[in-house]
Write a structure and sequence with these properties.
68% of the residues lie in helices and 0% in strands. By secondary structure, it is mainly α. α1 packs across α3, α3 runs antiparallel to α4 and α4 crosses α5. The protein is globular.
Length: 165
């Protein structure tokens, strides 16, 4: 069965954005160097915060091209997706720090749209994506991200509870 291009891109976005989470689960407290090196911005708040790590960035940059190849897409599509997703995620974190949202806090829309829209805009000239496809993929990603975040949170709570018993 051949998946439609929009579904392939949606899967690639989920992998690119999920790779840092998977790396955190697998590596626990290892390789936690923050991307912003702990620096503070002009407002004295962290530039990005401690949850944006090189480990997560590297995980996305490895997993998305590998997944693209597995889906029959060129690795450059996966790399572009990863770069755009991580840029969107870092932008979102930067904005949330300016809004005084804690590093673990979420803002509906701000946590989903940049990390799906930025890569799609980067891919648009390569794949000739139209506005309708971009909008549909962003909405699909946002819904998937909300569902997967809830499932992962429940899994982590159960897993962490079981490991401390």
């Amino acid at each position: 069965m051949q998946l439609k291009p929009d579904l392939l891109l949606l899967l690639l976005l989920i992998v690119a954005n999920g790779a840092p989470v998977l790396a955190r689960l697998l590596l626990a407290d290892r390789l936690l160097q923050p991307v912003d090196l702990g620096l503070r911005f002009l407002d004295s708040r962290p530039v990005l915060g401690p949850r944006k790590t090189w480990r997560g960035l590297i995980a996305a940059l490895i997993m998305a091209p590998v997944t693209a190849l597995a889906l029959g897409l060129p690795a450059v599509i996966g790399m572009t997706t990863a770069i755009g997703a991580m840029a969107g995620d870092l932008l979102s974190s930067f904005i949330k720090r300016r809004l005084n949202v804690p590093p673990h806090g979420s803002v509906l829309g701000l946590d989903q749209v940049p990390e799906s829209l930025v890569p799609l805009l980067l891919l648009q000239p390569l794949l000739d994506l139209d506005g309708r496809s971009i909008a549909a993929i962003v909405v699909g990603f946002s819904l998937a991200e909300l569902l997967l975040t809830r499932l992962l949170t429940a899994f982590e709570k159960r897993f962490m509870q079981g490991s401390h018993s």
